[in-house]
């Protein structure tokens, strides 16, 4: 069944790995930790990109492009940043190869050694702030609202397709502002954009909050994040937005003259989401039969499969199918009529199920007689007969219903798997037996945070916006606490 | 005047360099040969990308993404390819930095040396064909039509913004086919897509043709190209499409089973255009006052500048301007109403002229009285009064006229600067005194091609599709020739 996908309940990890391969989303390359994003996976990512890009532009941002390579010395300029990012990097040391002595192979030319090594960007704050220095002179140049779509590289030892890869694709926003308040507003605004995208497009509910100091981005004064809950009860950080204070402005000496001519350092933010969202999307909705996609991100909304014997029947069915196809297309629905004669209907059914196409239509000889089609929903796996007449608006409504159903289902799952605990035994028991998000009081110290992590592998995912200030006792140390925070084991 | 841009007639090269900077298109980074594409430049590139991507998808191609890094040994697998590409590459030798002994700097960790060095892709044939090996088993998997949007790197010694940079952005199509004929058809089809894009969107006429064997892509059996003529009389290779035969299929052992189960090597193509097109666009249309953009690629079609004294007048003008803006937007025209109070009208006029905005509208107090606006065309620099009434459809037509005018102007320039020569003295004289494209008979030998290049720096840009087979004598050797070919000095 389902081309032998392992069951989630039996081996969640194997299920994910096989699903990514069998739904033709991505695969490992021969280069350690680097993935190949296959056309179907890339089409989903492209849909994510388009919508995010639209929202970035609607909030006043412009795209630009900065160099892939960063001089090694740049990384040392911001003290916290270098500790966080300088370590596991791909390092370019030479710029030329030459023929080997065997005449066949190529070898690195020792003559072509760089004076200063270059790092493949793990993130671009340093190279971008080095440019901002020249771009910003006066308050007239602010705010500067830049986004970059790029590949980045962090040398990871243990990799998983989409979730953790050495090279990944992402966008990184980098903005400069005249005031602290404006920069904080920007960082908060972009987190809202991410949260809205996650819920409205990925059908993935998220918890918005602040990272603890320990979990902050290297070089940030505050890190805002969205955290999502996966079907195995583990959390996944889906996006972060950072208020960087004046740290990078000071490191790269970026000042502006205000309206009175006074020189001030600018205030900064950065924010990013990556192809990791692909992992989040898969882990949120998919089932034992394969991928399940929210219609707003699906490369194909409706697949039409003809069931026929002989060319004549195929021709008759094709006529109906093409009519339906153009009616659906007129409503902006992306349709694939799969009349490939090299594959059988059963193969096609399994294929579209595995690939998470939201709606599949089958048309056979009986449907021709009765003026009907069979409609299968991918989210619930329900099948129903529909009249051919007026089918397009009904399917448009069905796609909207599927989008909504996926969000509601994920919301219910999150609600059911978010547990408030009052003491340490309860904490450990919930974590071990149920998993999911745990809301508990924490004394606010990095020491306690670290001990909980050591003992249970659970980390503080965030301090949620929507928990309240209240008196309480830390679930671990029993010291005073002012607020519940969100714990979970995480990807 | 024009913020002091050098005149083309006086110093074409300085004019280009300053224009790229002053129109805010791109700048050099601190990393040798790597450019920063600034927001305005990137917006133009984004428009190019969108249209090309649309055309690639319309011709059946899908996007995918392959690793940035290529194992060094891959380059040696295709013999011709390695000679062409393996030399000037960025080489990754290590994967970790560590703190230096001074406690402040970071140094390369000698323990973290890679077993096999990795190359930053100069082009992706090798890594892609290494994957195709797993993607292709049967004729059912063919044709495989893949495109990738990516950054690539070729370590260039002499760089110029957009025209020749170490890192550049591009797309690379890579396709696999069951038959030779189908692969050739594909390579030809994609050249037509490029030529159509150049003419219809960039308003840049091109000559379509074949490269000589010497000028072919490393690993190709045939290279098709489009060549454009710049205002200084030099040619620019704007796009190439390669028929790769079975070279990469054999190097990476990519076979398919045909309908009868027989194993065959597949046939391949690759094709690409890059941010070099930005250079071509600038060099084709721009003038001594700055950038000139064809409306189809302009990030802003119409800029509206209010001319006012005091807040009240600005409010009155804004009302008219916003009405015009929404009428224009309703026709799909991208409008910027520049009511920034920090800048004066004169500054704004110079800015939009420098940035090549196709149409600029000025609205002053007299226009309010008379119901008029002043409309300035960037291409001809003409200014005319227009009635406010029914302005939108008139400007839509004007934008179409500008697009057409730019193409016609460039076509006339190409016609005037394409010279057929019959003998060597004429060849040298035209090249020296007039420049441009030279059509001349060539004996078909690499030796003559090389000698002409040595003596004059002119190269064979292509063997144009539209020259005819005819008997003639080589302009250099006087040996037999069967066809005229296109010579020029080139970027």
Give the name of the CATH architecture of the largest domain in chain A. Answer: 2-Layer Sandwich
| Uncertain runs of chain A | none
Number of strand segments of chain A: 26
Instruction: Specify Rg of chain A, calculated over alpha carbons.
Output: 26 Å
Under CATH, the topology of the largest domain in chain A can be stated as: BirA Bifunctional Protein, domain 2
What sort of overall outline of chain A do the alpha carbons produce when their principal axes are compared? globular
Estimate the strand proportion of chain A: 25-35%
Tally of individual helices of chain A: 14
Q: So what's the oligomer here? A: homodimer
Percent of residues in helices of chain A comes to 25-40%
Structural class of chain A: alpha+beta
Biggest interface, and residues per chain? A-B, 63 and 63 residues
Classified by CATH, the class of the largest domain in chain A is: Alpha Beta
The CATH homologous superfamily of the largest domain in chain A is termed Bira Bifunctional Protein, Domain 2
What is the distance, rounded to the nearest whole angstrom, between the alpha carbons of the first and last residues of chain A? 29 Å
Q: Sheet with the most strands of chain A? A: 12 strands, mixed
| Structural domain tally of chain A | 3
